[in-house]
Specification:
Layout (H helix, E strand, L loop, with lengths): L2 H7 L2 H5 L4 H7 L7 H9 L42 H7 L2 H4 L17 H4 L21 H74 L3 H9 L9 H15 L1 E4 L7 E4 L6 H5 L5 H7 L3 H13 L2 E3 L6 E6 L2 E6 L2 E4 L3 E7 L6 H4 L17 E5 L2 E7 L5 E4 L3 H11 L11 E4 L14 H5 L1 H21 L2 E4 L12 H14 L1 H4 L4 E3 L15 H8 L4 E6 L4 E4 L4 E7 L2 H6 L11
Parallel strand pairs: 2-7, 2-16, 3-7, 7-11, 11-12, 13-14, 14-16
Antiparallel strand pairs: 1-6, 4-5, 8-9, 9-10, 15-16
Helix pairs in contact: 8-9, 8-10, 9-10, 13-15, 18-20
């Protein structure tokens, strides 16, 4: 038997409990463990007598054996049970080995726990064995990830979440603080804004109340201030004004006679007299029938200085509606002692082409007769346009409306309850300088007509806003006193079809060319029925004498005092009560 045979046949791992060949060999230092040398050393014999029949399952006897610890100790004899092959084994051993004493063993151990060192004789020199580090089992990447990386990730995520939570909490706290601060700031700003709003409202209210009270409408002024929703105690001026308005109201004097109220009537005004008087065809007629802008301004000044206050029909005529029937009656108007009411009417507010267009090409030119060409709205104000002698279109106070507006701006107490003049227009050449007569559609097209209508409506809206009222001057500037009912019907039908849609509403008719349908104002004929059916309830005729007004229940007739160049030059007494012509 050689070493290779032994190594192949004897399995130390099974018999002695070695884990693995690697574990056993690596625990010994130096050369590999040599069993042959060990046996020869212990027994002094050649081991060649061991044969390959040496069984790996050889039974060495009981698991534990007690050995004598000292020499000379007598061991008790005990029956030893022989194995089936023990005789054969003993027979082959030399006598020295048969009589050899057993090796002393300090403590019996189970076979499975016996280490190689326990089998080695005492005289065998022991070598220090290097302690091999405990070999760890190789860890899989997944387990390594779970054991090492994943906890770090979890810890990191937890830290991040905690950080977010802390930051979120801090952010919410900061946000709450900011919200509270913002709310407090907004509340402060709101309180400040509310205070500013009330201050502004109070100031505007005081200004508006003053404007209204300047026109002697103390009832409206008082209602405005009493309706203030803010803290009146903060604005003592309100109480002062309220007391003042109530005091002035108590001193007003009633005017109960509508027939005593004069109505001064003007044509459109001459803006450039040098061109008007020198007009070869109509200069003389203009001079006899028209008043210049300068003259009108002076008339306004004298009216104001003489205590006159501008009123309109609504100021002294009351309307009572019963079903579909309207009846009229006088109502008092109240003015301070010494003040007197007056009306102003302007007729022919059409700016006919014969006044403005010398060559009749449809465009106003420098050779016109020196009148305004149209009313225009400029920055919300109504002004008049005119082509001057240089051919330039200029905007300004070239007719009655803008002059009157500037005057009232300076003297708000001249307009009773915001009254303005009555403007009477025909329709044969449009209104207010805009060619809204439908005949222009044939010559200039629908788009031109539509643009003219739009311009006229813009002017009408601005005039209504300012307080002006409107009247018909017939459609064709006709003398209805010479017409029968059928002819009047045709003319007024054109007016209601072309002019009324632009004005919106109109219930007043100013008779043109000093005509009237009745000499005494008793309107009972078919002519009256035609006009009444067209919606007219107020009728204004002419006079060269004093004022007059008749209230007949279902209509009102008034006389207007025409202010002309001829009258001012040759009948100055006509205006002596009002102004010095």
């Amino acid at each position: 038997m050689n070493e290779k045979d032994f190594d192949l046949d004897f399995d130390f791992e099974k018999e002695y409990g070695f884990d693995t060949p690697e574990d056993t060999d690596e625990q010994l230092s130096g050369e590999d463990f040599d069993l042959k040398a060990l046996l020869e050393s212990d027994f002094g014999e050649d081991i060649s007598q061991f044969t390959s029949e040496y069984e790996t399952n050889f039974d060495y006897g009981p698991e534990t054996v007690d050995y004598a610890q000292d020499e000379g100790m007598v061991l008790p004899e005990a029956p030893v049970e022989k194995q089936p092959y023990e005789d054969e084994f003993d027979a082959e051993l030399p006598e020295e080995m048969m009589n050899a004493q057993p090796l002393p063993v300090e403590e019996p151990v189970p076979y499975e726990e016996v280490q190689p060192e326990a089998m080695m004789p005492e005289e065998l020199p022991r070598e220090e064995k290097p302690v091999r580090p405990e070999r760890r089992r190789q860890v899989s990447p997944i387990r390594r990830f779970k054991n090492e990386t994943l906890p770090l990730i979890i810890a990191g995520v937890t830290a991040v979440l905690l950080l977010f939570f802390v930051i979120g909490s801090i952010g919410r706290l900061i946000g709450k603080i900011k919200t509270n601060n913002d709310a407090a700031l907004k509340a402060s700003e709101a309180a400040e804004n509310e205070a500013e709003r009330q201050d502004r409202e109070a100031l505007e209210l005081l200004e508006e109340a003053d404007r209204v009270a300047a026109g002697y409408d103390y009832d409206s002024a008082i209602a405005m201030l009493e309706g203030f929703t803010g803290n009146k105690a903060k604005y003592p001026e309100m109480e002062i004004r309220l007391s003042e308005y109530k005091q002035k109201k108590s001193l007003l004097v009633a005017h109960n006679d509508p027939g005593a109220i004069p109505n001064l009537s003007f044509h459109v005004l001459v803006a450039d007299p040098s061109r008007t008087w020198n007009n070869k065809e109509l200069g003389g007629k203009y001079n006899r029938n028209f008043v210049t802008t300068d003259e009108f301004e002076k008339i306004l000044e004298q009216l104001y200085n003489n205590g006159y206050v501008l009123v309109d029909m609504d100021c002294f005529i009351a309307e009572t509606v019963t079903g579909e029937t309207i009846t009229y009656s006088a109502k008092p108007l109240y003015l301070p002692d010494g003040k007197k009411p007056v009306m102003i009417t302007q007729t022919m507010v059409n700016y006919y082409s014969y006044m403005t267009d010398s060559n009749e090409d449809g465009v106003p030119d420098k050779d016109g007769a020196g009148f305004a060409t149209k009313l225009v709205v400029q920055n919300g104000d109504v002004k008049a346009a005119m082509v001057n002698s240089a051919g330039e279109t200029v905007i300004g106070n070239y007719d009655l409306v803008p002059i009157l507006e500037d005057f009232i701006e300076k003297h708000p107490d001249f307009a009773y309850h915001g009254s303005r003049a009555l403007l009477a227009v025909s329709g044969v050449e449009g209104v207010f300088g805009y060619r809204t007569n439908k005949s222009v559609i044939e010559t200039k097209g629908q788009s031109y007509y539509d643009a003219e209508v739009a311009g006229a409506k813009e002017v009408v809206a601005a005039l209504k806003e300012a307080g002006y009222t409107f009247a018909s001057y017939t459609y064709g500037d006709e003398a209805y006193g010479k017409f029968d009912a059928t002819t009047i019907q045709k003319d007024i039908s054109k007016w209601t079809a072309e002019v009324l849609p632009i004005l919106g509403t109109c219930d007043t008719l100013v008779f043109a060319k000093t005509s009237d349908i009745s000499a005494n104002g008793d309107y009972t004929t078919s002519k009256f029925n035609v006009l009444y059916g067209a919606g007219f309830r107020y009728y204004i005729s002419h006079t060269t004498g004093g004022p007059s007004c008749k209230i007949a229940g279902n209509y009102v007739r008034q006389l207007r005092i025409m202010v002309t160049g001829t009258q001012m030059a040759h009948a100055a007494n006509t205006y002596a009560k009002y102004f010095d012509s």
